[in-house]
């Protein structure tokens, strides 16, 4: 890549200056301040968000969000690692410029600086999650899969303990009836939940909405992704962000409406 870039690290002092920290969400949307508040709380736990800008452009063209593994909001045990929650480069014309690699390198450098065991991430070929190709290109290896199309990958610096996927499957039986279990880690999930909350459909089906409020709860969520779970009688119907249209289509397929 030969384009000049600037990488900005978000902190408590500059958070309000960079609305791009909330990906693709209008600051006027009700989900925006909810995610901002989540970030403020998590920064004290070591959360890092880095935005990347191309020279001459005012809007960020990508970002990465990561935390110490002890505070990962995924159903993993990754103590001693840095754990990547999200990685985006956008729009498509800015892909294949090496921007994603630069953001991953920022995380790897942080991990080395803090003497971590390495860097870990959950990837998927499905929507709303980064695929594994970029991570494999940057030296990561697949450690484990969840049988649902998601992978735990890690770049290790030595022969230390590897991260593992927690037993998310055993958590599903706790949820009888129709449930949404979510966290504010993803602003798109927050937007959907706030839109569906209080609707006639939700009331009719006695939809129970439960917020995951701590990393410990996320690490014991009923899916590897953790941030969004739509469950009916112990069966996962969706494990990542869905639109209202998709939500209704799923309910129709299950003959709930």
Automatic annotation (TrEMBL):
Residues 209-248 form the YoaP-like domain. SUPFAM superfamilies: Acyl-CoA N-acyltransferases (Nat). InterPro entries: Acyl_CoA_acyltransferase, YoaP-like_dom. One of its GO terms (molecular function) is transferase activity. The keyword Hydrolase does not apply. Keywords: Transferase. It comes from the Bacteria. Pfam families: YoaP. This is GNAT family N-acetyltransferase. It comes from Mariniphaga sediminis.
């Amino acid at each position: 890549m030969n384009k000049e870039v600037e990488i900005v690290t978000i902190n408590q002092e500059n958070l309000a200056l960079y609305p791009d920290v909330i990906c693709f969400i209008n600051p006027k949307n009700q989900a925006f301040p909810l995610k901002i508040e989540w970030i403020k709380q998590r920064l004290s736990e070591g959360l890092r968000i880095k935005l990347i800008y191309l020279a001459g452009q005012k809007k960020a063209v990508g970002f990465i969000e990561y935390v110490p593994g002890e505070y990962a909001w995924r159903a993993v045990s990754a103590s001693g690692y840095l754990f990547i929650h999200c990685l985006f480069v956008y729009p498509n014309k800015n892909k294949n410029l090496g921007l994603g690699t630069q953001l991953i390198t920022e995380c790897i450098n942080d991990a080395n600086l803090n003497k971590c065991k390495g860097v870990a991430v959950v990837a998927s070929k499905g929507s709303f999650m980064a695929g594994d190709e970029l991570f494999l290109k940057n030296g990561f290896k697949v450690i484990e899969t969840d049988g649902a199309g998601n992978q735990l990958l890690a770049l290790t610096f030595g022969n230390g303990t590897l991260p593992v996927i927690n037993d998310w499957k055993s958590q599903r039986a706790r949820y009888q009836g129709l449930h949404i279990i979510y966290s504010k880690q993803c602003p798109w999930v927050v937007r959907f939940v706030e839109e569906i909350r209080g609707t006639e459909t939700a009331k009719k089906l006695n939809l129970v909405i439960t917020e995951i409020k701590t990393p410990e709860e996320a690490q014991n969520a009923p899916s590897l992704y953790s941030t969004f779970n739509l469950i009916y009688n112990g069966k996962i119907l969706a494990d990542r962000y869905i639109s209202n249209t998709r939500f209704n289509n799923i309910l129709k397929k299950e003959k709930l409406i």
